[in-house]
């Protein structure tokens, strides 16, 4: 009860009108009401407090402060052995519960109620309605503190006893308990939270804002984004800063989920502009906003945000580095990808599994994708140093062995690039060795037999390219000795070993390995047969140079031809067998062409072309078919061309023109040379200047330019155009003197320096 006080001046103006006796009685009554006489003994005082507590508990609305004070007094004076101890505990617990519900922020009242209720023995409550009422109240307390068995609490809270409040905190507590069930009953929790927030509540505005955010989370979990959006929009300026910014973030994410990245960016911008946004959320929002800019098509707008966030520490700074690396990677570069790798390195200092890495901001899958694309892009752009470095940083994040494999691939590609220049051959060998060592390490630890076989093969191949034939052979020995390998994998290993030994000029050992592969009844045996035939041909050419080994050379040629004939005639069912058969036909065609059996060679090359093999072999077959037509059109030993010479030459022109427009550099260059030669044979001298200028311009500064210009010189001479012929010859000699020795690799005469000195320039200069 409270007393209304009025100003003293007002009292004086009216007190004279009342009899003094009446005033005295009123004052005495007021004093007794406000300050009743205290009971004479502690027992009497205890009984009075219990009655006062009962009365206060029945009064609606409850006075939380009065209930709290009386309950503390009664509970403190309660004797554990008293006959009414359980009833008083229920009374005090109920008082603390009522006070807690009146002011839910006072968690200590829930705890005090729980302590008292825990000491109550429900089975001792004789009155059934009272027992049910206690169970209901006890369930509320347990729900508030997250205690007890969830299903039992839900059952109790759903069964509301007569006289108990069914709305208010019961719905919130019920919703929270639904979420504790296994599995959580999200739909029921959503229903209760919605009803709770729609009705009268006593929770502080800040706590209600958190409840609304929790309800929004439930809506999202149930796949109801529109409901979530409506709830989030109800979280207003009175919410705590962290809750308000979290709501804005979720609204932005909802917009992003609908690909409305402009709206998402606007929401994120609003969070950053709010000075009350907590610092820990601000950094995360910088990440989100940068991502929204990227997906809205303006990635550069987020670069400054990422650079700023990356300056911090912890998971957000790490994620900012990863996201910044992704952004830089998607931009064109003319200076390599070292900057991308630097940023990845800065982010990757925190290892997976540590407190500084949180996949919430940048998932492991996203990070692996950035590493993979960085390695791939760097290698594709020729920046192999960055590719190798990125692969090294990638290791802790990659699946087992993946980073090592990518590093080996990059080093192997680096070696291939370096090998193109004789001056960098030592560096190329080193890169191949590094790749081989990584492949060997993978082969030693890889869990599957197929993987082991593949990596031993790659290791052997790279060792061979590095010039270390012994290491290559050792790697292949490891492969052939691996227990449990399929027969075809073993056969492939013998083929690889044979090629490695033959590359090291170990003919006997190499052919023996190929014969081992042929013993296997697998598709790879057909590949071995063709490679053995080619090895016989190569060795026969070497032996044919010496008079003492001519017979041996002829035997090898015959054996090689027999192998190819058998391979070409064999039944081919699998892709490997079909590839081997096409290769056999091609090699047989080359063999026949070298023997000037142009018609037979022509037939073999056409068989290959009709089979439509892989692009490389198809192009080679077209080139050699054109060459066979060109050779046949020249005629017999006496120089008499066949009747259909022009038809053959025109078909050759078509083949060479098609290859001349292709992408493979060797085939294109050889097709260019033959196209010029065929045009010359067709006596189209007027076409030669434009054609040769166009073709030689694609091989400027190479021996191919010299060859094509020699044909232009010949065309001018045949056309009796002395002056342009002399000019062309002068340009040829100038080019010849400018070409370094490595431009003349040998093989065909035109690819040797002696040929041009002795067959061209010296004889022509000696003529008057």
Structure notes:
Helices cover 71% and strands 0% of the residues. It is mainly α. The longest helix has 21 residues, at 425-445.
Summary?
By secondary structure, the chain is mostly helical. It has helices at residues 8-15, 20-34, 42-58, 64-77, 85-102, 107-118, 128-145, 150-158, 169-178, 186-198, 205-221, 225-233, 241-257, 261-273, 279-295, 303-310, 315-329, 338-347, 364-380, 384-394, 402-419, 425-445, 449-465, 469-480, 487-503, 507-518, 524-543, 550-569, 575-594, 598-611, 615-633, 645-660, 665-681, 688-696, 703-718, 722-738, 753-766.
The separation of the N and C termini measures: 139 Å
Helical/strand content category: mainly alpha
Round the Cα radius of gyration to an integer and report it. 47 Å
What would the principal axes of the Cα set say about the shape? Answer: elongated
Instruction: Tell me the major beta sheet.
Output: none
Mean pLDDT: 87
